[in-house]
Amino acid sequence: MPRALIVIDVQNDFCPGGALAVPGGDEIVGGINRLMVDFPSVIVTQDWHPARHSSFASSHAGKTPYDTTEMPYGAQVLWPDHCIQGTTGARLHADLNADRADLIIRKGYNPAIDSYSAFFENDRSTPTGLEGYLRTRGINDLTMVGLATDFCVNFSALDAARLGFAVTVRTDLCRAIDLDGSLATALDGMKAAGVTLA
């Protein structure tokens, strides 16, 4: 069965020193690079926000990072400004072997809606195009790694399972934000959806 490695958001702003640093986010880069050799296809995602994106706390008067607000598509965590298009923070980590990628999917560029998942914006219906790419290449078996376990990896894995892909998440090659218990909730949700946690 054709397989792909999906490397999610291994970007400077999600690594130590970044605007939305995930603890230990840089620790997984070497392991991801080594894992790439086992896969015929590697796909990388990249958070790619315009300045003043609606998911930034700075775009909402009186709000601070990690507050939540209601958007037309539901509840939205408000984040520090991060992964702004063309900035150093938005770049893929310098040690990540991005040259190995067949495809780089940029997401979150619509200023009105956030996009955690590699497959859909947060309205859960506007596609990124990744599903079509995988289908036309006959790829059905996905392994996911990257940042952060409880947000972009989780949403990507759940969407992939919902779309009928076989999904494995290598938790040793992910790191989490763990916002108010979000990691445990995400792991339970992935297991319930039939995602293999390895």
How does this model look, in words?
With 198 residues, this protein is α/β, with parallel strands linked by helices. It is built from four helices and eight strands. Strand 6, helix 3 and strand 7 form a beta-alpha-beta unit. Helix 3 packs parallel to helix 4. The mean pLDDT is 96.
Low-pLDDT segments, ≥5 res: none
- Sheet-strand content, in percent, reads 15-25%
Oligomer: single chain
* Backbone structural class: alpha/beta
Order of helices and strands: EHEEEEHEHEHE
Number of strands: 8
Helical region count?
4
Largest sheet: 6 strands, parallel
Radius of gyration: 16 Å
Shape assignment: globular
What spatial order of strands do you see in the largest sheet?
A: 5-2-1-6-7-8
Can you summarize this structure?
By secondary structure, the protein is of the alpha/beta class. Helix 4 links the parallel strand 7 and strand 8. It has a 6-stranded parallel beta sheet with strand order 5-2-1-6-7-8.
